[in-house]
Design brief:
This protein has 264 residues and is an all-alpha fold. It has a single domain, classed as MetI-like fold, CATH 1.10.3720.10. The protein has eleven helices and no strands. Helix 2 packs across helix 11 and helix 7 runs antiparallel to helix 8. The longest helix has 35 residues. Its main location: membrane.
């Protein structure tokens, strides 16, 4: 009982430490003052300034387009990669490829960013949206693989064997049995890749150029001149979007699990 209380207290403490800065940031986005050192009164002035800042809104739109594009492509390629690895009957080969995938996951972002910068420089590739997109796809694929491959390994092959006995071809088995079974993992990988892309700074900092910028790079540039509460307002909106995405994914997984139980 005492261990349970200590465990719950520890988790609560961690959650408080994580969320207090976010609450502080959101609260001061409604401050009528210009700095975060004192409360001057409730106001929406910083949200008005945010929606009047066309440059920041364009960068925000570009960031979401980049994140959605890279996450979608990474989810597609990562799923194909997971299906390919799952076809390995040799456990040693599977372990080798899985280890290589894990190395990419734990590699420092700075190392990945510098590597891509060197690659693009050698190839004479112009830095901009495409270079950032390629880099984001590259570091997102291992995330999708990590989410999808375990689900494939846990699949019950009974349905696949039965489908083959009934004359189903590979395309039918893939579209009607395999994909629906691993779809929650694909969505989880997509959302994780989307999150990583949205908040990435190190990799993007090295491979961006030609007037293209993302939100993290722009905030860093503005922070060197002093962060305004307009950034607080933007961060509050992005936090709200993140909460909606988490809620949507929770509702989707709950519905999928409930539907799976009913079909069984």
């Amino acid at each position: 009982m005492q261990k349970k209380i200590l465990g719950n207290s520890y988790v609560l403490l961690i959650m408080v430490l994580l969320y207090i800065p976010i609450i502080f940031l959101v609260a001061y986005s409604f401050n009528s003052g210009t700095i975060m050192s004192g409360w001057s009164g409730f106001s929406f002035i910083h949200y008005q300034q945010l929606f009047a800042d066309t440059r920041l809104l364009k960068i925000l739109l570009d960031t979401f387009i980049l994140a959605i594009s890279s996450a979608t492509i990474a989810a597609f390629i990562g799923t194909i990669g997971a299906l390919f690895l799952d076809s390995f009957h040799n456990k040693k080969n599977l372990n080798v490829f899985s280890s290589l995938n894990n190395v990419l996951l734990v590699s420092p972002d700075v190392t990945i960013g510098v590597s891509f910068l060197i690659l693009f420089t050698i190839l004479g590739f112009s830095l901009g949206f495409v270079s950032v997109l390629i880099s984001h796809i590259a570091f997102s694929i291992p995330i999708v693989l990590l989410m999808v491959l375990p689900r494939l390994r846990e699949m019950d092959n009974t349905l696949i064997i039965a489908a083959r006995d009934l004359g189903a071809n590979r395309g039918t088995i893939l579209s009607q049995i395999v994909i629906p079974e691993i779809w929650p993992s694909i969505m989880a990988g997509f959302l994780l890749a989307l999150t990583y892309s949205l908040d990435d700074f190190a990799v993007t900092f090295f491979v961006t150029g030609n007037g293209f910028s993302t939100l993290s790079v722009e905030i860093y540039s503005r922070a060197r001149q002093g962060v305004s509460l307009e950034i607080n307002a933007l961060s509050a909106l992005m936090f709200a979007v993140s909460l909606l995405l988490v809620l949507a994914y929770y509702l989707y997984t709950t519905y999928s699990d409930k539907k799976a139980r009913l079909t069984k």
